[in-house]
Write a structure and sequence with these properties.
9 helices; single chain; about 250 residues; elongated
């Protein structure tokens, strides 16, 4: 809770005067966090673990997993209590389980603790997370490993600003590389049974630069290996030309 508040407070100052909605996955399920956001008059939608206990009015406590949420079902509970401790506000619970579609079934439904007033608003808001998952992955394990820095306050803001600049540059380079048809040299374009493209413009831009940098570092070894396969020389020349074009896109 303390760590989450430390991360959120600087953002509240940055976006003072704006309408803010906080979306959190199951690691942000804390009722204390929800109560703190509510005290700041901030809207929130926080996904809850299925083992979380709740109590509806005039009923005993029960686990979320006992509420009978199955594929194709959704419901909205108002004024629920999620802790026996006193001093906490009551909130709403939106439950949603996407129906089976084209043979694909989600592993679990959503239980969303929120101070929004309707099921549709809560579900619509939480679905926005899927739009930013790719960026989260890029900023974490897929690119810049922001989480491993354990930064906070001013250092965190400075790192986010630096990542934003680097992220933008990598995307622009990736787009230019795609326009020139160079992405096939950086990574596989397709994957069996995959409907969407394998790599984003960010990935193409970032790893294209790493590929060129590695080639420069190991240039002598690379050219020695190319001499061992003279029959593949036309392919090697295409790759070298691709490197030159990627460098020109930087």
């Amino acid at each position: 809770m303390a760590e989450q508040k430390k991360l959120i407070r600087p953002l509240l100052r940055l976006f003072k005067g704006y309408k803010i909605l906080v979306l959190g996955d199951r690691e942000f399920h804390s009722i204390k966090l929800a109560n703190w956001l509510y005290s700041k008059k901030i809207a929130f939608v926080l996904r809850q673990n299925q083992g979380t206990y709740i109590r509806q009015e005039n009923q005993s406590y029960q686990r979320l997993q006992s509420l009978g949420l199955i594929p194709g079902i959704s419901f909205f509970l108002t004024g629920i209590q999620t802790t026996k401790q006193k001093g906490f506000a009551k909130f709403n619970l939106a439950a949603y389980y996407k129906r089976k579609y084209r043979g694909k079934l989600e592993p679990a439904g959503w239980f969303l603790l929120t101070n929004l007033d309707s099921l549709s608003d809560a579900i619509k808001a939480f679905k926005l997370r899927s739009c930013i998952e790719a960026m989260f992955r890029d900023c974490k394990t897929g690119g810049y490993n922001l989480e491993s820095t354990h930064a906070d306050n001013q250092r965190l803001i400075a790192l986010i600003l630096l990542i934003a600049i680097a992220y933008t540059c990598a995307i622009l380079v990736g787009r230019n590389s795609r326009k020139m048809g160079l992405q096939k040299y950086v990574g596989r374009l397709k994957e069996l049974r995959r409907l969407h493209q394998r790599h984003s413009a960010f990935w193409i831009g970032l790893y294209g630069q790493l590929w060129v940098g590695a080639m420069e570092f190991w240039a002598n070894f690379a050219h020695d290996l190319m001499r061992l396969k003279p029959s593949k020389l036309p392919n090697f020349q295409k790759g070298l030309r691709a490197m030159t074009l990627i460098q020109s896109a930087l």
